[in-house]
């Protein structure tokens, strides 16, 4: 039986990956800073609670792993990366040094990057062949970490694969897991409070939105087809390019259908002066290279994903009110 270790197993994406892997007959190690509940399934799951900035704790957590899925995210989310470099870069550096010194075949490391490592999108769609010119601190740190992984791969120490993720949305897979902090869930929470949903500009800016379950299946697909993927970065996306104005109106419609109340208003506003240029540019993804190798494709439609997100967040808020 293979041993697969998920670092960041209590996170939004991490909990979804953990649930997907738990269905397999493997040894599954769920590692997070706070304890998480092992999901049901065929896997022999071990939960490890550890601060992975402690190098010794990291070494214990990944010992004898055949594959490691790296889903760590520094405190405060991706917009607070200035203070999160130790997690976003330092732990990855420690990881490749630790597992690269072991005996036997080099372990596979599947790393979660971001499509914005490219910086301001130079064209649509992105396909992974663009030069990297990241702007935001988080995107810079992800690129640095990815480069460390690829250098260790070239040196034969690990077998690194980077999946560059777009805007991920959806409902949390596990009780107690970190909630999605992205734009879709933020608008669902505003609609729950009866507040208008504000979209910057005229609402035509597009985002490539992928449901978290589809992102989890991309990680399992990478683990199933490592050989042709090792040493490269691969873009994950639905390829739709959903206009944010339409997405917000869909959120308002689904919330109305779920609660029986009138839909909240969707209004267009001028972007604030501090808005980064990457937030004002459309972005769609061509995942053809990754799909051709793995057979992966997104299965959750935007409407179904928004419906599920609305239902989950509404239930969560009502549950808190009852208690």
How is this structure best described in words?
The chain is α/β, with parallel strands linked by helices. It has two domains: 3-169 and 208-235, NAD(P)-binding Rossmann-like Domain (Rossmann fold, 3-Layer(aba) Sandwich), CATH 3.40.50.720; 183-207 and 241-283 and 300-322, UDP-galactose 4-epimerase, domain 1. The chain has helices at 12-21, 55-62, 85-99, 137-154, 183-192, 212-224, 226-229, 244-259, 288-294, 302-322; strands at residues 3-7, 27-32, 44-49, 67-70, 108-114, 159-165, 167-169, 197-200, 206-207, 209-211, 233-235, 242-243, 266-269. The protein has a seven-stranded parallel sheet, with helices on both faces. Strands 7-10 form a two-stranded parallel sheet. β4, α3 and β5 form a beta-alpha-beta unit. α2 crosses α3 (85-99). The longest helix is centred in the C-terminal third of the chain and has 21 residues, at 302-322. The termini are far apart.
CATH fold annotation of the largest domain = Rossmann fold
Mean pLDDT: 92
Termini Cα gap: 42 Å
Structural class: alpha/beta
Strand content: 15-25%
- Give the class-level CATH name of the largest domain: Alpha Beta
User: What is the number of beta strands?
Assistant: 13
Give a short account of the largest sheet. Answer: 7 strands, parallel
Helix content: 25-40%
How many helical stretches? 10
Topology record:
Elements: E1 3-7, H1 12-21, E2 27-32, E3 44-49, H2 55-62, E4 67-70, H3 85-99, E5 108-114, H4 137-154, E6 159-165, E7 167-169, H5 183-192, E8 197-200, E9 206-207, E10 209-211, H6 212-224, H7 226-229, E11 233-235, E12 242-243, H8 244-259, E13 266-269, H9 288-294, H10 302-322
Helix pairs in contact: 1-6, 2-3, 3-4, 5-8, 5-10, 8-10
């Amino acid at each position: 039986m293979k041993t697969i270790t998920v670092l960041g197993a209590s996170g939004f994406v991490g909990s979804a990956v953990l649930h997907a892997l738990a269905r397999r007959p493997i040894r599954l190690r769920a590692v997070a800073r706070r304890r998480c509940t092992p999901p049901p399934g065929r896997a022999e799951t071990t939960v490890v609670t550890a601060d992975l900035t402690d190098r010794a704790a990291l070494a214990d957590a990944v010992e004898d792993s055949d594959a490691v899925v790296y889903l760590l995210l520094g405190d405060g989310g991706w917009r607070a990366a200035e203070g999160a470099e130790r997690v976003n870069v330092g732990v990855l550096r420690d990881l490749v040094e630790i597992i690269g010194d072991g005996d036997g075949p080099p372990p596979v490391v599947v790393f979660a990057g971001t499509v914005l490592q490219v910086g301001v999108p130079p064209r649509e769609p992105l396909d992974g062949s663009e030069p990297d010119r990241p702007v935001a601190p988080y995107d810079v740190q992800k690129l640095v970490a990815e480069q460390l992984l690829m250098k260790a791969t070239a040196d034969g120490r690990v077998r690194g694969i980077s999946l560059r993720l777009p805007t991920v949305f959806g409902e949390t897979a596990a009780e107690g897991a970190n909630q999605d902090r992205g734009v879709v869930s933020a608008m669902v929470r505003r609609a729950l409070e009866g507040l208008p949903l504000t979209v910057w500009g005229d609402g035509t800016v597009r985002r490539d939105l992928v449901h978290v379950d589809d992102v989890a299946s991309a990680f399992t697909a990478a683990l199933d087809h490592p050989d042709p993927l090792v040493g490269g970065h691969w873009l994950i996306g639905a390829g739709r390019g959903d206009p944010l104005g339409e997405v917000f109106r869909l959120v308002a419609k689904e919330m109305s259908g779920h609660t029986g109340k009138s839909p909240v208003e969707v209004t267009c506003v001028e972007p604030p002066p501090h808005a980064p240029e990457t937030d004002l540019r459309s972005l769609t993804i061509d995942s053809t290279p990754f799909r051709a190798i793995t057979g992966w494709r997104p299965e959750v439609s935007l409407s179904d994903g928004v419906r599920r997100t609305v239902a989950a967040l509404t239930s969560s808020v009502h549950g808190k009110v009852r208690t």
